[in-house]
Amino acid sequence: MAHGHHQQGNSPHTATHPDWADMIPYLERTAEVHAPLYTQALDWLRASRPGGTRLIVDAGSGPGAVSRQLAAAFPGARVVAADPEEALLARAAERAAEAGLADRLSTLRVELPAQSARLPEADLIWAARSLHHVGDQRTAVAALAGRLAPGGTLALVEGGLPWRCLPRDFGLGRPGLQARLDVLEEERFAGMRSALPDARRDTEDWAALLTDAGLAGASSRTFLLDLPAPLSPDARALLVELWTRRRDGFEDFLTPGDAEVLDRLVDPADPLSLHRRDDLFLLTAHTVHTAVRA
């Protein structure tokens, strides 16, 4: 599993196996722009664990950007960045060394849920937007729950709200483009999920899945990322990449009018493009679902 964040692909119905190595810059930029949201979530998690946290597993760590935030939020803990992709783990180790965290942040190659027994027993397991890349999510939740130490917390980041960055009518084409693209994104996501190995459809009631895995006190809380205009260069660059991926991935599914608007939005020479607009913002929300091993 790797941090998907915003589920990407080459079309609305393919790309169950993204090239994660090529996506490292995008994954890192996404995590960095979303850092205020993760800070809120990790502060909340830390406050919910008054007994202390010695070992954390970041399940589906990707290149380790959030692993570093976990290490910062829990300064007394060791962090294991766990992921099946060697290129992502190599980058996570590199980032840990750059931050002076090599003694506290290690990596582990593991494919979940099949290799869950390789995970160390942890006080906190964090799985952020990674379980949707596993065909059988119910089995994956149970596997992670089984690697918790007594009193340990499993925290899943799944769901929330789609991102918004422009007004409904932003002066190009027919109003409501972002909502129309959300529909295509949902179709693509459903296609990706159904094509995964061992795909199983479960109601995405994450609190219920945590309870069914034998954990107690399941609850959910949503955290907001609200970056008003004017955006930082990194946030603007992330939005340009998100829209470029949508233009390329949805090319065969767009009306001619919407395709023309997308071309203009990502064209740096266009005065109304994302590169130049003063009204660009970023608003989204991620939901964290937690439960504890009694």
Give an overview of the whole structure:
The protein has 294 residues and is α/β, with parallel strands linked by helices. It has a single domain (24-292), classed as Vaccinia Virus protein VP39 (Rossmann fold, 3-Layer(aba) Sandwich), CATH 3.40.50. It is built from 9 helices and 7 strands. It has helices at residues 24-33, 35-47, 65-73, 86-98, 137-145, 177-195, 206-212, 233-249, 256-265; strands at 55-59, 78-83, 105-109, 122-128, 148-164, 216-227, 282-292. Strands 3-2-1-4-5-7-6 form a 7-stranded mixed β-sheet. Strand 4 (122-128), helix 5 (137-145) and strand 5 form a beta-alpha-beta unit. Helix 2 runs parallel beside helix 3 and helix 8 (233-249) runs antiparallel to helix 9. The radius of gyration is 19 Å and the shape is globular.
Task: Enumerate the strands of the largest sheet in spatial order, edge to edge or round the barrel.
Answer: 3-2-1-4-5-7-6
Oligomer: single chain
> Which band does the percent of strand residues land in?
15-25%
CATH class: Alpha Beta
| Fraction in helix | 25-40%
What name does CATH use for the topology?
Rossmann fold
Shape call = globular
Q: What is the assigned CATH homologous superfamily? A: Vaccinia Virus protein VP39
Q: Helix/strand/pairing class, anyone?
A: alpha/beta
How is this fold's topology laid out?
Layout lengths: L23 H10 L1 H13 L7 E5 L5 H9 L4 E6 L2 H13 L6 E5 L12 E7 L8 H9 L2 E17 L12 H19 L10 H7 L3 E12 L5 H17 L6 H10 L16 E11 L2
Parallel strand pairs: 1-2, 1-4, 2-3, 4-5
Antiparallel strand pairs: 5-7, 6-7
